[in-house]
Amino acid sequence: MFQLAVGVVAAELLLVALYTHPSRVLPAALRQFLSWEYFYRRSVVQLGADRARYDPELLYTLRPGRFTFTNVEYSTEYAVNSLGVRDDEASLAQPEIVVAGDSYAMGWGVQQDEAFPQVIERRTGRRVLNAAVASYGTVREMRLLDRVDLSRATTLVVQYCSNDYGENEEFEKHGNRHVPSGEDWWLAAIDEQMRVTRYRPFRMVYDAAVYVKRGVEGRRRGGFEPSTAPPDRAAALFLNALVHAPRADLSRLRIVVTDPDPDPRFIHALERARLDPAYPAYVRAMRVVDVSSLLTPDVHYVLDDHLTARGHELIADALIAAIR
User: Fold this and answer.
1) pTM of the prediction?
2) Neighbouring residues of 197: CB distance < 8 A, sequence distance ≥ 6
3) Which of 85, 92, 98 is nearest to 158 (CA)?
4) Are the beta carbons of 171 and 178 closer than 8 angstroms?
């Protein structure tokens, strides 16, 4: 019994050490477990009342002011303007380029000036507003644009992500009407986040046993998983949201779309779908930027599924070429 107790303590200490200092040199199976553990235990920026605020239409925006957002592989500073997005107040004054998206464009995991919207601003000399908010789907991204001064905007960059699919599908199911969740749902999600991120003694050993057991039984483990949504359907839902969700007139803007996913199937489907004569001219003129070949594993974090600063630079370069 003493040897068993010592073994369990040693295993817990070892797993905690590997989790807090992740490395690509670890065996693939061990990295998969640590990524699975991280997926369920990581801090989520929008699930903290000190980092986000409730919004009756958008469910939440970021909370104006400054805060630090930390996970295992990074600690980043956020300066949030009065709109509730991760950018300075000056960028709200008649921006020339507006970037809509979710956590990737927002800059999850990188410092504010390392996110690709800010990189575009520095390299082009044009005023860029980063209007991306973590976990927004295309519908909420378009609704947020209704609050942006687009009077001098010439370009809208839209960053798509596979998890936009659900929100875009719900929008279509409700007759192209956005039905937001209530404040109670958001507060319950915050409570759940606080519960799962709290460390319990021997949590890592227990979770490792559960992970192995599910694998032996052939059960689904969860965690980060590739999208199973049909690409053509995802493209159609995206275009439907792009056309019908915003109240603002986007027809005079040049629209550029990208997807920071190593799997290019959505981007290829979107390139085909946009040419349908049924769509308005500004949709058919859309530029679709495929960055899939650029986003190799070395520009991602080991545990987190987001991009490092180098990944943001590569996306910025590809988007600048399309904008020009």
Assistant:
1) 0.94
2) 41, 42, 43
3) 98
4) yes
Long-range contacts of 180-186 (CB under 8 A, 24+ apart): 180/56, 180/57, 180/58, 180/59, 181/59, 183/54, 183/56, 185/59, 186/54, 186/59, 186/60
CA 30 to chain centroid: 25
Model confidence over 197-223: pLDDT tens digits?
Answer: 888 899 999 999 999 999 999 888 888
Q: Which helix (H) or strand (E) holds 70?
A: strand 65-71
Domains annotated on the chain, with CATH = 66-179+228-323 (3.40.50.1110)
Please check whether residue 73 is in contact with residue 34, taking contact to mean a CB–CB distance below 8 angstroms: no
Written as six digits, the tokens of 269 are: 């489907």
Which residue do the tokens 């930027």 mark?
Answer: 289
On the CB side of 153, CA atoms within 13 Å amount to 28
Q: What is the pLDDT of residues 126-160, one digit of tens each?
A: 999 999 999 999 999 999 999 999 999 999 999 99
Tokens of 286: 């859309």
